[in-house]
Amino acid sequence: MIKGFIFDLDGVITDTAELHYEAWKALADEMGWNFDREVNEKLRGISRMDSIKVIMQHNKVSLDESTIVELATKKNDLYVASLDNVTPEDYLPGARELLTHLRTEGFSVALGSASKNAEKVLQQLNATGYFDVIGDGNSVAKSKPAPDIFLYAAEKLQLPPANCIVFEDAEKGIDAAKAGGFHSVGIGPEERVGHADIRFNTMKEATLFEVKSHFKELF
Ligand code: BG6
Ligand code: MG
Ligand code: MG
Question: Which of 2, 48, 138, 168 would you call most buried, defined as having the most Cβ atoms within 10 angstroms of its Cβ?
């Protein structure tokens, strides 16, 4: 039986990818590095430190660890400042409706995000109240595609993975859900999340009715 839902944040509840892009782009420009939306796409779902390493690799740059941390912190300061502009108008279409519906139907709901800024994003959206448990980039050491963040969330919900559905927009996020033994819903194109149990192009189509009808035997 499905008793819980675990949501990724960026790309599922709200779209902060553009804000991440702008902050990385400002850092890259300052460093004289190449960075575009195609490279930004590779950062979907992965941690801040993994992200800067992808960008450095793309530019064939190597730096010592403390400099990397310093640069990642600089990017983060820009990103966090830009979060002040996020408002309750910035849910992805359908996301707030689904969260509300899950609340009224009595499901347990957790966040399972790689971001260390997840609490701030939820506050800006006024979304904190939808979640029984918040798992974020500060909760576990190993980031996606490791299943740790979802296992953390499920444990806090006191539910086994088989009783939970994970919502994810990232390829590595679906990998993480599967590695943990969770049911999975992919949000986005086939080439990115086609390996999820079920897939919707956007959150707008991912209603509780649709999800229930796909996982019929589990409800
Ligand atoms: C994820 C995003 O939610 O958080 C990634 O999809 C991002 O793109 C990651 O790199 C880490 O975010 P933060 O806020 O800890 O730098
Ligand atoms: Mg995401
Ligand atoms: Mg995420």
Answer: 168
